Amino acid sequence: MARLLQIFSFLSVLLRGGTLSFESLTIGGIVFLNFVARSANPQSEAINQICLRWIRRAAVALAVTQLAYILASTLILMQSADMNLADVSGANFVLAGVLAAASALTIAALAGARSSKSYPIMLFPAFLILLSSVMTSHAMARLEYRFPLAVVTALHQGATATWLGGLFYLLIAIPRCPDNRFARQLVARFSKFALISVAVLAAAGFTLGFAYLGSLDAIYGTSYGVMVATKAVLFGTLLVLGALNFQIARSPSGGAVIASLKRFGEAEIGIGITVILTAASLTSLPPAVDLRTDRVSTRQIVARLAPQLPRLASPSIEDLPRDIYAAEVKAFDAGALSSASFVPGHAGTRPNTPAEKSWSEYNHHWAGLIVLSIGLLAFLAQTKHFPWARNWPLLFLGLSLFLLLRSDPETWPLGPNGFWITLQDPEVLLHRIFSLLVIALAIFEWRVQTGRVATERARLIFPTLVAVASALLLTHSHSLGNIKEEVLAELSHAPLAVLGIVAGWSRWLELRLPSENKVRDRMARLWPTCLLLIGLLLLNYREM
Amino acid sequence: MRPSHGVLLVVCLFAVVAMFLMARSAMAHAILLESSPSINSTVAGPDIPIKLRFNVRIDATRSRLTLVKPDASTQSLAITKEGPADALASQAQGLPPGQYRIRWQVLASDGHITRGEIPFQVTQP
Prior knowledge:
heterodimer; B: three-stranded antiparallel sheet; 1 helix
């Protein structure tokens, strides 16, 4: 039963991430169609049609994920709380989900009709989608300031959708512009909307941060605070890209201008999706203001982050618990789990033994040495004096083998648990997927660096996978309590994730920006620098 | 100018993979702030008033309280209808001395379920 609930729980949160992304695409598309595309030029029929096509796709995807989310959550509730379907059907999340799905299907029907009269009508169901999202937010669950917080949440989500969702439509609209002048007109109009959205987003984000963090020490002392800070840093990265876009849009005309705008737009969407998903992760954490005990102090952070020599000798595998699943059950029965509240399928966190901590530090330190070497070789390869340095991606194969062998010592090939348990435990499964991603990354990038493949698509594999793998770092499981060790782990993982995301998207921009754009050279130096910094941070990673 | 479908595909692929990977971390957010009896406390029996307070509004009609007795048998506890939006209240009656546990499960407004256990000891009045 616990395994079944874990799978359903995993599925329902997966769908939650999907609904937030499709919601942004649906609402952003409708705003773009009504206020940017139509107003730019009434004759922009090709653009209107492609927008309608993508709005319809996003709305259908939103309806499907919403209904699947309701189904998964309903099944969890029926199984775990011994309720029948009638009992569950009146729950707030069901009502909100049905409202969103019905609104999304209405939008899909209106978009399918392709009549210009339906464009403004779509704004109403778009508003209802936003309303349904707010119905299940932190704001509506609060006891105090419920209504003002709900309004601010709606503004925050609406502005996000207008900016990031709208940006997607700008990217698909630009190639369909009859000429560059028209494209620049479209970009200029969107820029105004983006600026207003960013201002609203920042103001609303600050207000929500103030309400849910409660104090400055919550920013570094709680998991919620660390995630908010990470989101704010990524938002800052988006602002830098937006500013570059804004600058380019006002520069003298030329083909390279539009190409540059599109490339920056791609990176903005990629980082934007990461921010939205970080936000999805945030909505599931208890706000820091509710957790006033057991916060991490600045003294503890300084003590943990103070530089020390890396651990290059591993403890014996015999020192590790032979069966972590049995250890977890034993800890649960003894009441020794670290969290008083947990979700079905996640019975809290068992504190790691000193041997497990040493094992993990050793893993991180060797990974740090490999990544540091990769960064150095990538720099050398750019100088053209060391052609052999271009083989740097092969070092990732060593990293993958290392991960496969050592990340989960309790399972195959080192531990007593067989290979198939890999598919049942999401934590182990994620590590295995990560190992495969690293192998794919090594092979593709080695072929690119050594000139064995020159297609655009193959070249983009490396930055995409680096960005995805870095987003993965933000997903380290959170407990529902303030567990100091977890907060400290997140404090070290968050900068790694941000650097990885910057590395991935700066390499993307180096490959995609036109050669006339001077930012391209800066991007070429930025990603190896990020890799060097990641290597150094990993070398100083500690769990005790 | 034709759109680059390949690149759009890569961006969409990124979104899907990232969504899959990010989903792991999202969990429920209704947490227990305080309870009576409190965790690992000793209370005088045989009748024990029970009150649990959470950090957010909860759906009391879709939440559950169960008493685990010293012999590991369980008993469903009726939740009081009236009460604050962030609390669950009940009453356990006629409890002989021994080790008990209250198992709670609440539904938050976003549809997320949270669970927990409150071990406590009952002594003679």
